[in-house]
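for the recovery benchmark. tokens below, seq after
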């Protein structure tokens, strides 16, 4: 299932530019791989959690992969992340559950989004997830 959302251009307060962002539901296999890679990156590399910190890491070109929970409500909280990631040529993917994402990130609360800033031993896994996610997005364009 693919959902489409439209949001205002976050870079321009006066213009009426609209961005079309695509949200996809990954297969269970890809979601499980993503959770595992986030766990591995959290223990051997570096991640940032939370929408604000993820936004900052994207803007600073520090993020290598952005992972967004699909069940965030309201969606506007994370809606800008795909467009911002695409603008900065940073790969992003979605996972179904914010609670599982928080657990994978090693925190005791839900995580709407995380960014892997240093892959550590998860480098190959992160690269694989990024390429699979990009293939899913390109297949629909």
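predicted aa per position
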């Amino acid at each position: 299932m693919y959902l489409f959302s439209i949001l205002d251009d976050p870079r321009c307060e006066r213009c009426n530019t609209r961005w079309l962002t695509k949200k996809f539901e990954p297969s269970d296999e890809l979601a499980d791989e993503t959770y595992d890679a986030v766990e591995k990156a959290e223990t051997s590399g570096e991640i940032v959690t939370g929408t604000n910190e993820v936004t900052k890491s994207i803007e600073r070109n520090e993020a290598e992969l952005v992972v967004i929970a699909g069940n965030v409500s309201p969606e506007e909280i994370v809606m800008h992340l795909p467009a911002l990631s695409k603008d900065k040529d940073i790969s992003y993917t979605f996972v179904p559950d914010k609670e599982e994402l928080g657990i994978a990130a090693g925190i005791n609360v839900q995580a709407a989004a995380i960014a892997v800033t240093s892959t550590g031993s998860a480098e190959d896994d992160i690269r694989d997830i990024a390429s699979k996610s990009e293939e899913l997005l390109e297949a629909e364009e």
